[in-house]
Amino acid sequence: MARHGLSLVELLVAATIIGLVAALVLPGVQAARESARRTQCANNLKQIGLALHLFESSHRVFPASGWTTAGPGNPAGKYVGWRALVLPFLEQVPVEMQYDFQQHWWEEHNLHVGRIPLPIFLCPSVGGRLAVTSVVAKPPRPALLLSQPPAATDYEALMGVQPASINPHLNRPFYNASNRFAVMHRNSRTRFADILDGATGTLMVLEAAGRPTVFRAGKPQLHLANDQGIGWIDSEGGFSLDGSSADGAIEGGGPAAGSFFAMNRRNDNEPYAMHPGGIYVVFADGRVQFVSESISLLTFAALATRAGGEAPIDIVP
Question: Is the pLDDT of residue 285 over 80?
């Protein structure tokens, strides 16, 4: 009887066709997955924005990026971060009940609570992370040796702008100690009435993804350490905008250093996301928006202050 089968040429043709089809389909699958991840990230930030507003409704001020003295939600005056303060408004009452507000965030009991992973603080576009097992001292916090790493966070409070970094981009100094701050900064007590630039155009929280692993222009830098943003429990991760060079090696320094970029160049103390083309931000009115990484540093700086009163003449390079 005659035996029918495929010749070698036919097998090669079939394999080539399958490879071509896979090459055409795979980018679409990857794009669909990233779209889903971006949607989840935006939803996380929407919930966080709502929690910040609920905190404001309860205390008449927005939470500080981090407390070092007694204040709303922190009567004991311990070092505590904004994420711990908004836990009850994120349907995380069981976690909040375990947190001891009579201790600093780095004390053993709270470090144990901080190991609880909270997906609401994680962007799904972020891949693997290095486990944090030690943290250098940042007085009054001592150096820490950790048996287990704290659970991570990809979202942080933007505290404002660094005048020394942004002013060199201007035709005359504009930012100073009175107009440099955003809604949430160290020991702040910001009310809605204090957001003079308008809640629709003032940032509160944004992506600072991938920490504590340090990234430069999309590449992890495993030889570099980061003592801030080590977990959702950390109160010291808030930062002010400096601007970065294209490769992320330089933070601040003005035009002479090539620091023209507002985001996605370095993730230690600058806005950063794993999404192609930009980051998600939460405005003071609770709105979540994707901001393109092509935005100018000065425009982003204007969004980073609550009472800067930036007029066009003031932000001309």
Answer: yes
